[in-house]
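Dear Dr. H.,

I hope your travels went smoothly. While you were away I took the liberty of generating a structure for the chain from your last submission, since the lab meeting agenda had it listed for discussion. I wanted you to have the full record in hand beforehand rather than looking at slides cold. The sequence, exactly as received, is reproduced here:
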Amino acid sequence: MTELLGERPSVFAAFEADAGGTRPATGLIAAERLDVVAELVLRSWREDAAPGQRFAPWVRRPAR
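The corresponding predicted structure, in token form, is as follows:
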């Protein structure tokens, strides 16, 4: 990894996750810092979302 980044990363993580497909999704993270936040992220618009609930970046309020 040092050859690709030019230096040794502070955080290096490899993982597999269930993404709902036929196989697990694999991922690799190399970074100076990593913050993990465990919370529900809404993937579609909901009028009844509680204050402070977070929507995925692509979710938009429907046009009226």
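Two observations you may find useful: The chain is about 5% helix and 30% strand. The mean pLDDT is 83.

With kind regards,
E. W.
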